[in-house]
Design goal:
With about 300 residues, the protein is an alpha/beta fold. It has nine helices and nine strands. It is globular. The chain binds zinc ion (2 copies).
């Protein structure tokens, strides 16, 4: 695990945290709906202090990667995901496996048990009939194969927030993978809380990310734009990021999403990383062609 460089201030606060650590662990194991733990809201160490140690005098700028897969669906080992999230020095990550939530809940539990220096937003990437939809701040799965509108309503009923993932994913990739990836123009009519405008998948991502930005510009309403890695390999964590301001950990992330004060950015991909990703994509397409299609895929 990446080394924590804690300030004295952080150590004092962690000692103070001992009092509610057990309550927090019980909470992450037993909640029906998402609620922030004390750790997630007040005691996360190592948040970006930009050289100013008194948090009350500054508004923190936080960085998150809001779309990550683990081995619970078709991503990397969870341990490796946690290791890479810490190494990327993110303040928060969302685990969003395809239609399963076990990895996200386990990641959140491990963060509390080990006092890792970032927070986990539990989530699912729901395979709706109209495309992939990220459900954040949920603690159970959302039924797949519903329309986008019904999926978003179900996410809201579960207390979560709905993100249109890679809404303009290339039709060719959808055809090859035999899966509907993007909700496309439905971003204008369905009640999404935010749109993933930066999905950092290399190469083909550039064009459809621009399309998402342009479509949103036409909408003329303020809505959150997220950036994510969509990492299926843990080394890609942090290639796409979402920035949000606030001093209250995950509560700041949630309200930034709700009020549209959130923005995404793309990281730098080395040539070798792009090649590795395309190799992964080709393998997924090949697997799909042989198996005759299915839900699980890259993205
Ligand atoms: Zn997807
Ligand atoms: Zn995905």
């Amino acid at each position: 695990m990446a080394e924590l460089d804690l300030y004295e201030h952080d150590l004092e606060r962690l000692a103070e945290y001992e009092r509610c650590a057990e309550d927090d662990l019980a909470m992450v194991d037993g909640l029906d709906t998402w609620h922030p733990t004390a750790y997630e809201q007040h005691y996360l160490p190592g948040v970006r202090l930009a050289g100013i140690r008194d948090k009350s005098r500054v508004t923190l700028q936080n960085v998150a990667d809001l779309h990550i897969h683990t081995h619970y669906s078709d991503g990397d080992q969870l341990e490796r995901v946690l290791e890479c999230a810490a190494a990327a020095r993110l303040d928060a990550i969302a685990i969003t496996d395809h239609d399963v939530i076990g990895g996200a809940l386990e990641a959140r539990r491990l963060v509390h048990e080990r006092r890792l220096p970032f927070a986990v937003i539990p989530g699912v990437e729901v395979s709706s009939r109209d495309g992939h939809i990220g459900a954040l701040f949920v603690t159970s799965v959302i039924e797949p194969d519903m329309s986008a509108a019904d999926t978003v309503a179900a996410i809201h009923a579960a207390g979560g927030l709905a993100i249109a993932h890679h809404p303009f994913a290339p039709p060719l990739i959808e055809k090859l993978l035999r899966v509907k990836l993007g909700c496309r123009e439905l971003v204008h009519t369905v009640d999404f809380d935010a749109i993933e405008c930066t999905n950092a998948v290399p190469g083909y991502g550039r064009k459809y990310n621009i399309e998402a930005y342009e479509q949103l510009a036409r909408r003329k309403v303020r809505i959150g734009m997220t950036g994510s890695s969509d990492a299926h390999s843990a080394t890609m964590i942090g290639k796409g990021t979402t920035y949000f301001a606030g001093n209250e950990g995950l509560c700041s992330a949630k309200s930034a999403l709700e009020y549209g004060f959130i923005h995404g950015a793309e990281g730098y991909w080395r040539f070798s990383e792009k090649l590795r990703y395309r190799w992964m994509l080709m393998k997924a397409v090949w697997r799909n062609l042989r198996q005759g299609g299915g839900r699980s895929s890259v993205n």
